[in-house]
Structures
1.
Amino acid sequence: MSDPIDRLLDAAEQGKSIIKNRDILHFSYIPNQIQHRKSEQEQVTQSLLPILKQSRPSNLLVYGKPGTGKTLVVKKVISKIQERVEKSNFPIKLVYSNSKEETTLYGLLVSLGRQMGLSDKELPTTGLAISEIFKRLLNRIIEDKTNAIFVIDEIDYLAQLVSKTGKDILYQLTRANERLDSGSLTLVGISNDLTFKEKLDPRVISSLGEEEIVFPNYDVEQIKKIIEERIKEAFIENSVDEPAVNLCAAMAGGEHGDARRAIDLIRVAGEIAERNQADKVTSDHVREASQKIEENKEETSLKSFPLHEKLVLIAIMKANGSSTGEIYASYKALCKSVGRDELTQRRITQMLSEIELSGIISGRLVHQGTHGRTKKYKLTISSDLIKKTFKDDLTLQDII
């Protein structure tokens, strides 16, 4: 019997390859031409133009649903400005960071500081107060007389970090120029949340949203053209069926016009087709890709849950369709099994509402006559997915 690893490697070396450039199918790829976003490219460019005239641009907020090209457009404009900056003596620094990827306010500010040229010694990865990190960032701007543009992607996530830490960092960022004797700081925020500003302090709103650009959703036809352009560059000729392209566009168009979702679908469908040594990507490959992406997304979400949320999910799994009280009783028994102190029933009730928002469970109110009302919860994902995701967690191995 042949070795399974060798068999797969041999097939990869000798078999068909219908994808010729995988990088083009990655969400971070910036194409030469960004389709259906001419107006938005012009607006972002016009907003940041003053930096080339040695003036400080206004703070800018860019809104739009996921996959509407916000980051793509801002990154392209920034890179084009950077090319021009390198040919001039005017000290300009353009830096980019993603709030969600950095996960902590400290990490985000250190990421910005590194791009400003601050060393590990000047800005250690732990041990400083947030106010001290910010002070050192501003000092670097003053010393180098730098005109800095900080692009913060998923800035709505930063707002959540701010509320948790109680640090008014957004206010400090937007008012930084009041503390600068030389140089300048402009903030460009990119947000998936159209209601983001409603959650902010009014002082921040007035200074953060000096200029705003809203990116509309793509329609199905626009998404189809975006996919076709990527396919032309990424796949060998005639290796993707037209119905597969239409299905990708329809699936992504039905989800708020998400072009990134469409590109992910065609990439994974291409990988599945290659694995099956198919000549073409078909609609069946796209359907299989959709299922795989959805499972991966749910698995990633489940792995990120804290221990007590995982215990609550296992309690629901063991008693699917049960009331809050029944789930809490099951949860307490699980805590005892793993040797952890249980949280209060009130906290678990709150937790159930939070998990419900993620779509992993669903709840419905049930009237019990004279006993009032109760809420019953059930899983919207398979028990097998929960078992598969939690099986490597040593704390949970014995109870799943």
2.
Amino acid sequence: MSEPLPLLPTSVLGSHARPAWLHLALQAVERGEFGPDDMKETEDDAVDMAVRDQEEAGVDLITDGEMRRVGFFTAGFYSHMTGLQTLEARRRFGAAGHDQRESYRAVEPVRAPEGLGLVEEFTYVRTRTTRPIKMPCPGPYTLAGRIQPGAVYKDRMEVAYGLAEVVNAELKAVVAAGCDFIQLDEPSYAVHASTPADFVTLFNRTVEGVQAKIAVHMCFGNFAGRPVAHRTYRPLMPYIFEMRADQYTLEFANREMAEIALWAEFPPEKELAAGLIDVKNYWVETPEVVAERIRTALRYCPAEKLTVTPDCGFSQTARWAARAKLKAMVEGTRIVRQELNG
């Protein structure tokens, strides 16, 4: 049975920092040196490490660190899909950027006949911890960003609606396996914020019939530790209030708490998972800095509705920094909990 969550629970967004040996294992796979059992053992060990790091830091609501995914939503998910042709990267050298990443073209309607892997991820991590677990899953609009429509679809949104069926089936499957908290990752909403009403319709279609607590994660990008958008949530409002989401996961720390006051405009029944740890900065926050950020968030969000998180996942962060930042996040939260409890 999972442990109950305290006031001001701490959590993570999804990915945990990968150790050097996991990078080496992925390279061995590319060279054909690992068999499937070798890789499963490696991934199991990586999940165990991610869980241990989170538990040692004292994080209340954890994930499996997304250790079975090669990148936030990339090969780890597209490898489960049919109907895709792999395209060459447009640029191979120089500073890291999205044009160096893999992309695909739809050659037939995209399907995932064996699912996307969330059930297997949840089933394993559930055996490794007694803490509450959140399962992150990339949303269809973000997934569609690396798929050219080809002759199968009209545009990116039509690709996304096709993927919404795939994701919806996966979410229902992981709920049937026992998961009660799902986070849909849609950074592309904030990156391409010109059609927010369309995103709401797509989101609600994606989570239709999914009987679990639903969070939506919207950020401004974090590939190689860099954002890719004008970093403001204002264009998405008030449309996103209509999402069938219980919790909104938003980033504030790397923007020096800019727009935290926007939370006062959200419906009172919604929860905020506030990003109060800057994953794009190798300066490690002190617990006192974290505590002050929490106090700022509490000016606009009641403690009963606030969860403390990093801005984004730690996949682009070195492990030593990720561990130190998680410990500071937990210690800073404890300071404020003690203040609230008198």
